[in-house]
Each structure stands twice: as structure tokens, then as C-alpha cells.
């Protein structure tokens, strides 16, 4: 483990706690890794702007694998790689989602967009106040509104405008509380050149098949001339599995879904117990119990 040179950590449910913040312990261990010459990157379903916000708040500057690998940015904000969804494919996907009456948001090189703010607010509130939530209804309302006020999601009249402006589509994030509906969408889109994952119980993350966190990890490793044998991935949900398949070492959070725990080389504490920091500590202090 002391040979690790590149660490990729998921954000929501992993690096971020349930308050959607980075703990002081995680911040300090990431900075210690950077001082030791290890590159730490964030690998997330968020787009670059939304991912940057909690990192800047924590005083961290990291490369970012964004929108599940559809975009890869260097630490200074330079775009290294991008793999989007072409227009015909986008129209096929959105037609199916609308046929199933599924709410969705579109992530692009210009940010993320919705055509129905109220539905977006209601969905976020439902997620934040769901089973096991630590949020009050008032707090959930505040956080949901903040998502729009901070510009993480922009409201437009029609997605057609994005296509007319030749905006590059990176990801479609769809939501449905009904498992049968989510499975129906997966089935209907199964033969298309897509990868469909999930980052939460009630969502579907739809990307072009070559846009994965695993490919993003390899892109960064190649850029920094780091052999994949010296990489480590940390995550908690289905969209992190491609990183686990690519990296030499992997660690699942205590709060991870079962499929991720089964795929991981090791387990760490939950996102509310600074599990990322504990993994990094084992990298920096070899005498600690190895992963």
C-alpha cells in the first residue's frame, strides 16, 4: 500500500458526510497525502462546477473526474478529456424517460439543467428526508433550494435549446421512486451504447458507454505517468464499480451498497466517520493494518 501514487475518491456518500461537507480529518489526510507526493482526485457523478464547490470550501485543490467520467479536469481546471452523448442518442434516451414519466436533469459542458424546478425540489427533499435521514424537513427544503441558488442546477424552458446551441451533453440523471420503472428504463435502453449506473437508491445515471469513473482514473494515471498498479479507489455506490475494476487497490465505505462492498479489496469506516481519511492513513503509514 505504501506504493500508491494516485488515489481516486468518490464524493457523495464517501468523501462528503451526510451534511454534504468534507470533515476536517479527511481534509488533513488529503493534504498529508499531497505533501507526500500522492495525487488525490475526486471522482464523482457531479459536474465540475458542483464538485468544485465543497472542495473549495474545504481549501482543497484536486483533479476532478466529473459526471461519472464524462469529463476529466486537472487540478488547475484544465479540461483533459471529455466523452459525451451525441444528439440522436440523447433524443432516444429522453423520449424513453418521458414515456415512463420519469423526471430527469441534463448535465452538460455548460452546467446541469432542468425544465421543472418544483419537481426537482420535491425529489431532493424526498431523498434528504428519506429513511435514516438526519435532516429535518426545514433543513431539506433549505438544501434543495440551495442547489438551485448556487447554480448547481439551472432552469430552462426546453432541452431543445441546449441542442440548438450545440451544448455538449455529458450525462442524464433520472429519478423514480418506483423500482419497476427504473428497471423498465434500464431494459428499454439496454441495447444502446450507454452505461447506466446509480449513485443513490432512486436514481439512474446515464452516460455514454466510454464515460466511466474507471476510464477517468486511467486517463489521469496516463497523464501523470503513473502505472495503474499504483492506484487506489474509494467509493460507496454502483457508479464506483468501474474504478474498483480499474484500480489496483480499492476500499468500500461502511455505508456502501452491498455490491460495492463485495467488489472492494477492503472496507473502511462510514462517510460520517471520515472513512476516506482512515484509508489514506493506511497508505501513508505502512505499519498500519494493510488494506
From TrEMBL:
InterPro entries: Cof, HAD-like_sf, HAD-SF_hydro_IIB, HAD_sf. GO terms for cellular component: cytosol. NCBIfam families: Cof-subfamily, HAD-SF-IIB. It holds the Pfam family Hydrolase_3. GO terms for molecular function: magnesium ion binding; phosphatase activity. This is HAD family phosphatase. It comes from Alkalicoccus daliensis. It comes from the Bacteria.
Amino acid at each position: 500500500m505504501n506504493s500508491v501514487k494516485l488515489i481516486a475518491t468518490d464524493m457523495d456518500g464517501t468523501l462528503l458526510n451526510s451534511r454534504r461537507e468534507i470533515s476536517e480529518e479527511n481534509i488533513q489526510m488529503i493534504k498529508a497525502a499531497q505533501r507526500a507526493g500522492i495525487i488525490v482526485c475526486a471522482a464523482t457523478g457531479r459536474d465540475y462546477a458542483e464538485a468544485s464547490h465543497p472542495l473549495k470550501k474545504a481549501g482543497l485543490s484536486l483533479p476532478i473526474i466529473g459526471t461519472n467520467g464524462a469529463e476529466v479536469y486537472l487540478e488547475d481546471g484544465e479540461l483533459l478529456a471529455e466523452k459525451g452523448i451525441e444528439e440522436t442518442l440523447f433524443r432516444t434516451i429522453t423520449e424513453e424517460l418521458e414515456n415512463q414519466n420519469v423526471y430527469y436533469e441534463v448535465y452538460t459542458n455548460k452546467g446541469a439543467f432542468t425544465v421543472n424546478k418544483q419537481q426537482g425540489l420535491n425529489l431532493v427533499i424526498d431523498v434528504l428526508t428519506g429513511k435514516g435521514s438526519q435532516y429535518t424537513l426545514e433543513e431539506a427544503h433549505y438544501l434543495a433550494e440551495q442547489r438551485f441558488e448556487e447554480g448547481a442546477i439551472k432552469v430552462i424552458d426546453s432541452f431543445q435549446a441546449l441542442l440548438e446551441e450545440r451544448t455538449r451533453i455529458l450525462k442524464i440523471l433520472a429519478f423514480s421512486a418506483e423500482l419497476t420503472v427504473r428497471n423498465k428504463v434500464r431494459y428499454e435502453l439496454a441495447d444502446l451504447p450507454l452505461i447506466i449506473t446509480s449513485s443513490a437508491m432512486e436514481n439512474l445515471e446515464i452516460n455514454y458507454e466510454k464515460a466511466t469513473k474507471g476510464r477517468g482514473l486511467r486517463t489521469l494515471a496516463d497523464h501523470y505517468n503513473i502505472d495503474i498498479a499504483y492506484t487506489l479507489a474509494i467509493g460507496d455506490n454502483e457508479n464506483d464499480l468501474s474504478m474498483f475494476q480499474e484500480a489496483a487497490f480499492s476500499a468500500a465505505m461502511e455505508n456502501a451498497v452491498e455490491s460495492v462492498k463485495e467488489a472492494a479489496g477492503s472496507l473502511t469506516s462510514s462517510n460520517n466517520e471520515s472513512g476516506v481519511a482512515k484509508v489514506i492513513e493506511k497508505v501513508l503509514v505502512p505499519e498500519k493494518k494493510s488494506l
